[in-house]
Design brief:
By secondary structure, the protein is mainly alpha-helical. The protein contains three helices and two strands, in the order αααββ. It is flat and about 70 Å long.
């Protein structure tokens, strides 16, 4: 890269980093957002470089084991008892596993 050219704009903007962090439920500091913006931009630049490669002479990949994706017959088998299935759960109630809520109610839905 020439020193007299201005640096290229980032491959990913701060708003996108903030959006991905929100979707991932990550609380990032401003320093972490800047770091992740640079790191994600670097990853995208690497993929952009790969996209420029001339792969015309490279043979297509052949799957190693043609039977690898074969599915078994759908045959019913005995399953775990409820007690066995719940044995390692950290918390249970009335025969169910208790988990923390993953969808927060923001009050926007009608009752």
């Amino acid at each position: 890269m020439s020193e007299d050219r201005p640096p290229a704009p980032p491959m990913i903007d701060a708003a996108t980093v903030a959006h991905v962090a929100r979707l991932s439920r990550l609380e990032l500091t401003p320093d972490e957002r800047r770091l992740f913006q640079a790191q994600l931009g670097s990853i995208l630049e690497s993929f952009q470089q790969l996209a420029t490669l001339d792969l015309g002479d490279v043979p297509a990949a052949v799957p190693g084991d043609p039977a690898a994706g074969v599915m078994r017959d759908d045959v019913p088998v005995a399953s775990l008892s409820r007690e066995d299935a719940l044995a390692n759960a950290p918390e249970t109630a009335d025969g169910y596993v208790v988990v923390p809520p993953v969808i927060e109610d923001d009050g926007s839905r009608a009752p």
